[in-house]
Write a structure and sequence with these properties.
Layout (H helix, E strand, L loop, with lengths): L11 H16 L10 H13 L9 E6 L18 H4 L4 E3 L6 E3 L3 H5 L4 E7 L10 H10 L15 H9 L9 E4 L18 E2 L13 H7 L3 H19 L4 H19 L1 H6 L7 H7 L19 H13 L3 E5 L9 H26 L6 E6 L3 E2 L11 E2 L3 E6 L8 E2 L1 E2 L6 E3 L4 H12 L6 E3 L5 E3 L12
Parallel strand pairs: 1-7, 1-8, 4-12, 5-6, 5-7
Antiparallel strand pairs: 2-3, 4-11, 8-11, 9-10, 13-14, 15-16
């Protein structure tokens, strides 16, 4: 079902506020170079005022987003008894946990199977429509189907909801971070730009020192210049404040200080300083250059390993939700070769390193780690040695956050085409994430048409994991 357009009629009060925001944005637009806009500050204030729920300060989530749709057969749900056109080219291997097998290209993950679990029965429903990449993005990040333009968020993503409800818990760090940049389906939609993720933009996989652009800008500002910016904001705001309540005007000052603290403060700068990691740890995750498949029809595999390491640093510092871009698992052609040469060995090394690293630092119990994509792949291998889109069953790896390792939740049928038992929806995974973080899933927020929208319309936490 499509959602109301933002262009529809809004109430006079909301229209007045929109005019105010546009006017003020024009007045203080130059503050954007320091990562600040006045509307964003006002939105952050409103979120903090409404978010008075007691939550655990140490809990966090890492989403390893395998966009494109990893093959359930070739990674976490092998079908060795099926003919080669179903089972594919990879043999299964036994793991540390008796009775659980995964792809032969993941030996490091197999050795620590007791620390993570698999859900093999995720699926999209027929009523959700033709679920491909974009529709799947929306459902997995928001719990709502996509609108007419499936590449744009219709509803706020889970990370934006976390920022809305929990940014106040640790004001010195962004609550929601994206490595390296915005993914489809992962934005704030009408909730407001203040709740979009903080994007590193710089890629930890690149050569040379890792530098986050926003922090580099901030580093060039002297104490006096920052003081001058505060004074300038006060001067330019004077006209706008005459239209505001006293409390709103005071909120501008408080959240201007908070935004400056995030951009210039030592806590955020230290958390993003990937170069502070010892070489031994960086090598454990993997320092390989990006995989060049040679054929434009094949999917190239970037070196995601250092992105995962940065995610560990961020949750260790107190960031609530980090999403890591691990795209692009869309193997229509040369799928086995691409997975063998680049994707699966690199994922195996980096994922196992992340789980072990979190455990050694005492962070695994408090950090829920989810690795999944938006769809699965067809049971039958196509004529190009690949698998096509298949929304009817897919798998995910889940660890930490109280998850009991060495479990398999649900199963697929003999050919790996449909859930056989214990079917799960993406909504159930979102409910699991929200429960872990203490997010109020029954909270309602008004979209631009004035319609109240529940954070999560359906879904129950996956208790079988715990």
């Amino acid at each position: 079902m499509s959602r109301p357009s933002a262009a529809r009629r809004v109430c006079p009060e909301m229209r007045r506020q929109m005019r105010l925001d546009r006017r003020t944005l024009l007045k203080v637009g130059m503050l954007g170079t320091a990562g600040l806009t006045l509307p964003a500050l006002l939105q952050a204030e409103a979120a903090a005022a409404r978010a008075g729920r007691a939550t655990s300060k140490e809990k966090s989530v890492i989403i390893l987003w395998m966009r494109g749709g990893p093959s359930q057969h070739d990674q976490w749900d092998p079908k060795p008894d099926q003919p080669v056109e179903i089972r594919g080219e990879f043999a299964p291997i036994s793991t540390k946990v008796p009775g659980i097998q995964i792809s032969e290209l993941q030996p490091m993950c197999a050795k620590i199977m007791d620390k993570w679990s698999i859900v093999r029965s995720f699926h999209h429903r027929k009523e959700d429509g033709n679920v491909g990449h974009s529709n799947g993005d929306q459902i997995c990040f928001t719990g709502y189907p996509a609108g007419r333009n499936a590449d744009e968020n219709v509803m706020p993503s889970c990370g934006s909801i976390v920022a809305r409800q929990q940014q106040h818990i640790n004001p010195s760090l962004p609550a929601y971070v994206m490595i390296p940049r915005m993914l489809p389906g992962a934005g704030a939609a009408w909730l407001g730009a203040a709740y979009n993720p903080f994007e590193t933009k710089a890629d930890p996989a690149s050569t040379g020192p890792f530098k986050v652009p926003n922090f580099e800008i901030a580093a060039g500002l002297s104490g006096q210049r920052l003081k001058d910016r505060r004074s300038l904001l006060g001067l330019l705001d004077r006209g706008a404040r005459s239209d505001m309540a006293i409390n709103d005007a005071a909120a501008i000052d408080r959240f201007q200080e908070q935004a400056l603290d995030i951009v210039t403060g030592g806590a955020a700068r230290a958390a993003f300083n990937l170069d502070a990691e010892p070489k031994k740890i960086r090598e454990r995750y993997g320092l390989m250059p990006a995989f060049d498949p040679g054929d434009p029809q094949r999917c190239g595999s970037p070196n995601w390993a250092q992105r995962m390491l940065l995610a560990r640093r961020l949750v260790e510092a107190g960031v609530r939700l980090v999403t890591v871009d691990l795209r692009w698992w869309d193997f229509h052609k040369h799928g086995f070769d691409s997975q063998r040469r680049g994707f699966l060995p690199r994922f195996d090394r980096a994922y196992s390193a992340l789980i072990e690293d979190l455990e050694q630092r005492g962070l695994l119990d408090s950090t829920l780690v989810l690795a999944w994509g938006e769809i699965g792949r067809t049971p039958r291998v196509n004529a190009n040695a690949g698998r096509d889109h298949w929304p009817y069953v897919f798998s995910a790896a889940v660890a930490g956050g109280g998850v009991q390792g060495g479990r398999v939740v649900g199963s697929s049928d003999r050919q790996g085409g449909r859930p056989k038992d214990c079917p799960k929806l993406p909504h159930d995974m979102l409910a699991t994430i929200y429960r872990h973080l203490g997010v109020d899933t029954k909270a309602k927020y008004l979209d631009p048409s004035g319609r109240p929208n529940t954070v999560l319309p359906e879904g129950e936490p996956i208790d079988e994991l715990f």
